[in-house]
Amino acid sequence: MGFRGFIVLVVLMGMRGSPTGAVSLKDESAHPNFVTREQKDLTVEEGRGDVMATGELNPSHFPARRAAKVVQHYLNTRYGSPYRLFGLEDVHSATAEDVADTGRRYHLQISAHEIISNRTQKCSADVFFPRGEPTQSPEVKASCEELLQNTTAQEEALYQRYKEGHSLLSAQYIPDSQGHIEPDMMPFWHLSIVASSFIMLHESTENTLYNMAQVAQITQLETEREELKFDSHMLLHDMVSQEILHWKLLFTWSPAEGVKVQQMQQIPKPNH
Ligand SMILES: *[C@@H]1O[C@H](CO)[C@@H](O)[C@H](O)[C@H]1NC(C)=O
Ligand SMILES: *[C@@H]1O[C@H](CO)[C@@H](O)[C@H](O)[C@H]1NC(C)=O
């Protein structure tokens, strides 16, 4: 079992407290996109000691990986689509500095992996975690080699199909309890990760490391507007606290406008 299998186990352990009990990601091969090439997330524990280190950071340790993960969420919010999804491939270098009393700034050189097209590109990024209460979202700046926001034929076809379809999309448990995703649902799994990236970006601090766990429910809503509109219930996994968090998310997508979040709200774990 390589790194990938190990990550799945880590996720599974986190799921045990989940009241739905629906997520067991045994069959990793069924959804190769779930675990990206993020083996270095495993160093959460190993890097804990230098969580607030400044200066040059070990690129494979938690503080650098955590800040780089925020860049991944940022890239997904800016450029993601049902056919474009970013993963963190590698952190090449990282530094951190305290900015007076206002927070901490990370400078990062990373490789971002576009999971669906299997392209990798280098990005340089700045992540600023503001200090103080109430907790504020990190501020991210990133520039990558090639970030054209092209509408692809696949996006257009998906959009047309669900815009003019005779029935609205409604799906539960992506992936299902066997870790399986129907091929038809794969674009909506990716779209859900992109939409959830808005939450993960917004909620990230220096004490979190979020990953998408499961779409509990996604329902397409009727709308007169050009975008497709979705109501959803997402499960996110924080690798640091090992908690599964439940969020209600209302969002739209169109090839021209990308993903836009209209409402996000953390909800209590449902009782079954
Ligand atoms: C993705 O690209 C890498 C390097 O460019 C290659 O080694 C790998 O086989 C590709 N993977 C897939 C699934 O095509
Ligand atoms: C995106 O659009 C640019 C400019 O129109 C074009 O040069 C490039 O090849 C396109 N990329 C993809 C992946 O379609």
The helix content is: 10-25%
For the largest beta-sheet, the strand count, sense and barrel status come to: 5 strands, antiparallel
Strand order of the largest sheet: 1-2-3-4-5
How many DSSP H or I helices? 4
Shape: globular
How many structurally independent domains? 1
Distance between the termini: 34 Å
Write the SSE topology.
Layout: H1 3-15, E1 55-57, H2 62-79, E2 86-99, E3 103-114, E4 119-130, E5 139-144, H3 153-163, E6 170-174, H4 186-203, E7 210-221, E8 228-238, E9 243-254, E10 258-267
Antiparallel strand pairs: 1-2, 2-3, 3-4, 4-5, 6-7, 7-8, 8-9, 9-10
Helix pairs in contact: 2-4
The chain binds 2-acetamido-2-deoxy-beta-D-glucopyranose (2 copies).
One 2-acetamido-2-deoxy-beta-D-glucopyranose binds at residues 148, 150.
